[in-house]
Design brief:
This protein is α/β, with parallel strands linked by helices. About 40% of the residues lie in helices and about 20% in strands. It is built from eleven helices and ten strands. The two termini are about 20 Å apart. The model has no long low-confidence stretch (mean pLDDT about 95). Bound molecules: flavin-adenine dinucleotide.
């Protein structure tokens, strides 16, 4: 079922959903099931699976020269989605990127998803590869998520890249896109970011999932600005419970989001990471309660492969 249908069927009740990432290459799928199993009691109608593009590594050869190697450290997004749908009978949502994909690759990827009975995708640009500062599309690829949304929306109308194809079958994907309550790191302003977010919706996206935030006011202000600009689709808040002291620096650096001072000080004063985990859970429960009271469509948790803290939060809310 489509995410938008799940939201409609919930009749205003806030849903529980979460995002997982594929295991590192060499691990098996059991680690994924082990992280999902404890969360199934909260009846997620959909589970997102992130996509990880290739990275470049440089290996020093015996002659001192460097060899460039292309590696994909977390493959398996499509296989995991299919396994989730089979095992749990819930909708699995693969993330799909512009980065690393030509238009042809994208089309073929979408055909695989369609054949597997996957009905939702989250369309993203992706970040620059680690060895580069700015995002660079493939030669025949998309520059921005909005273009990727258009390609998926075209396929939903039976429009393939090759116009010679006749009697084509239309896909039926519900398309989600990313939104940033504290603006995307490259956007010159929040207003310009929302301008391009609106274009993604115009091109065919049907719902938005936000970047994580730790101050609900940022989300409420963002939603108000989006509504003012005429964006009417559901805006699903993304939440993450902090679980280590290191994340105080890692999260702002990696995701360009602010942490409120009260949360920072509680983490700083925590005596060890067990205590930090408890602070993170309590903060996330308080955020979740306020968001449910505001009638958000779903609470979407970034699990990063660790389910105990999400289980503790969900147990207090659902
Ligand atoms: P876009 O919407 O293309 O925006 C990128 C930047 O370009 C923004 O600053 C925007 O304002 C600007 N912009 C957009 N359109 C235009 C235009 N037409 N002209 C000029 N400027 C424009 N990354 C992964 O690698 N894998 C994942 O699975 C993944 N999942 C994510 C899930 C969520 C919910 C979120 C919030 C992020 C996720 N990311 C993931 C990270 C995401 O790929 C990065 O944040 C990336 O840098 C931007 O992706 P986007 O789809 O928001 O890009």
């Amino acid at each position: 079922m489509k995410v938008t249908e799940h939201i409609t069927n919930a009749n205003g009740k806030t849903l529980f959903s979460f995002e997982i990432l594929p295991p590192l290459k060499g691990q098996n799928i059991q680690s994924i099931f082990d992280s999902i199993d404890p969360l199934m009691e909260f009846k997620p109608p959909f589970i997102d699976v992130t996509y990880h593009r290739e990275e470049y590594e440089y290996k020093e050869l015996p002659n001192g020269l460097l060899e460039k190697k292309v590696v994909k450290k977390r493959p398996g997004t499509v296989g995991i989605c299919s396994a989730i749908q089979n095992r749990y009978q819930v909708d699995a949502i693969p993330h799909i990127l512009c980065g690393g994909f030509t238009r042809e690759d994208t089309e073929n990827f979408l055909i695989d998803l369609d054949f597997l009975g996957i009905q939702n995708v989250v369309a993203l640009r992706g970040d620059a590869v680690k060895s580069e500062i700015y995002f660079k599309p493939e030669k025949e690829g998309h520059h921005f998520a909005g273009e990727l949304v258009t390609q998926i929306a075209n396929l939903n109308k039976g429009i393939y890249l090759d116009d010679d194809l006749q009697n084509t079958s239309a896909t039926n994907f519900c398309i989600g896109v990313a939104g940033y309550p504290e603006k995307h790191m490259e956007a010159p302003s929040l207003d310009s970011d929302i301008y391009f977010l609106k274009q993604k919706i115009k091109n065919g996206a049907e719902y938005i999932v936000t970047q994580m935030f730790f101050d609900n006011k940022k989300y409420f202000d963002f939603v108000a600005k989006c509504r003012k600009e005429g964006i009417t689709v559901p805006i699903i808040p993304g939440l993450k419970p902090i679980s280590t002291k290191k994340q105080l620096n890692q999260i702002p650096h990696r995701f360009k989001v602010d942490l409120p001072d009260d949360l920072i000080m509680a983490v700083v004063k925590a005596k060890d990471n067990d205590a930090v985990r408890q602070v993170g859970i309590e903060w996330c429960i308080a955020q979740s309660k306020e968001l449910v009271a505001a009638g958000v469509p779903s609470l979407h948790y970034y699990s990063m492969g660790k389910s105990e803290n999400i289980k503790a939060v969900a147990g207090a809310i659902f």
